[in-house]
Design goal:
By secondary structure, the chain is of the alpha+beta class. It is built from 8 helices and 19 strands. The protein is globular.
């Protein structure tokens, strides 16, 4: 805490020191902004030497610990985070956890009132693989701590063969017996993976797509949907992480002939509920993104929750949405700085 400091100071824990664009700096009103990395923390002196924005320019300066910390460092060291939280105050440190474990997320959400929107999911177990595949015919296997679509596989069970796909729609392996699949899987997957029911989602121009809503806390300290987008996959893939195009959610939904406004309102409600559950069960968050798929009957499914939303994709759809997504968490940080816990 900066004793005698006439304005609140917001700290942002980042992977590398680099002055923000002017548009991001303008997000902060009546507060000072400090960018710092773990290497910039001087624990014994309780000071930080980082990049300091005073409303006019960036300065390299040593200052006291900020009033609030917004974690933008992906998968930060837990011990460092705990130590920093203790000094700043846990209620004033948000997004302390942003690399989310998919199984932990599922467990939190499946115990809530939105469990019916989740694909059935289990921890990978060699003995449960075949029964789960028999039940659903198509399944997804993904790492608990995966990101960017890496190591995602799909298995399809058909009349005379079993097919395995990795990222795209071209099989990387096929088997004619369960034993062959089990031998293959024994070397491939383990308990740090999850198995999930695969749901064939509606397509747009023969491409799968998702609906991503960015949910953040703002100046009032409440969850709001700040931005939306739809990622259209490459034509030969079953994941949207590397996408062909990014458009607004409404634009995508209008083209698949669903009641767009009604569905969007439902998605927003689900996204906010998801964020509230995450906040209550997994830690103090200030922003998340929730990815949805829409099945052939127009029903939404929660596919993924991300603890560090990629805001840069919004530049492809709407600059004002991008700006709002940048500024809203900083407004929340100012809210926290003025709140006495």
């Amino acid at each position: 805490m900066n004793k005698g400091h006439h304005k609140p100071q917001i700290g942002m824990l980042v992977p590398a020191l680099s002055p923000f664009a002017a548009s991001e700096s303008r997000c902060v009103k009546n507060a000072d902004l400090l960018l710092f990395t773990p290497r910039d923390i001087h624990w014994n002196d309780e000071e930080i030497s980082g990049l300091y924005w005073n409303g006019r320019s960036w300065l390299r300066q040593k200052v006291g610990f900020p009033d609030v910390v917004y974690n933008r460092l992906y998968d930060a060291n837990k011990n460092m985070i705990t130590r920093l939280e203790a000094l700043v105050g846990k209620p004033k440190f948000f997004n302390h956890r942003n690399r989310l474990n998919k199984w932990n997320v599922h467990q939190a959400l499946v115990a809530s009132n939105i469990q019916s929107y989740l694909p059935e999911t289990i921890v990978y177990n060699h003995k449960k693989l075949l029964p789960f595949l028999t039940k659903h015919q198509q399944i997804i296997i993904k790492p608990r701590l995966g990101r960017l679509g890496v190591k995602i596989h799909r298995i399809d069970q058909r009349a005379k063969a079993l097919y395995i796909y990795h990222d795209n729609n071209y099989p990387v392996a096929s088997f004619t017996s369960d034993r062959q699949l089990l031998n293959y899987s024994r070397e491939k997957w383990h308990a740090q993976f999850i198995i999930q029911q695969y749901i064939p989602f509606m397509q747009l121009d023969e491409r799968i797509f998702d609906i991503r809503l960015i949910v953040q806390k703002g100046a009032a300290g409440k969850w709001v949907v700040t931005a939306d987008m739809s990622r259209l996959a490459l034509s030969y893939t079953f994941v949207t992480n590397i996408c062909h195009q990014v458009i607004r959610a409404k634009q995508a939904l209008d083209q698949i002939k669903v009641p767009t406004n009604k569905l969007l309102a439902k998605l927003e409600k689900l996204a906010i509920t998801t964020a509230q559950v995450m906040d209550a069960k997994l830690g103090h968050f200030g922003e998340l993104s929730v990815d949805f798929g829409v099945d052939s009957k127009g029903n939404p499914w929660i596919v993924e929750v991300n603890g560090k939303p990629d805001k840069s994709l919004l530049l492809e759809v709407d600059y004002q949405l991008y700006q709002a997504a940048l500024c809203t968490p900083l407004a929340y940080a100012q809210y926290l700085s003025n709140y006495n816990f």
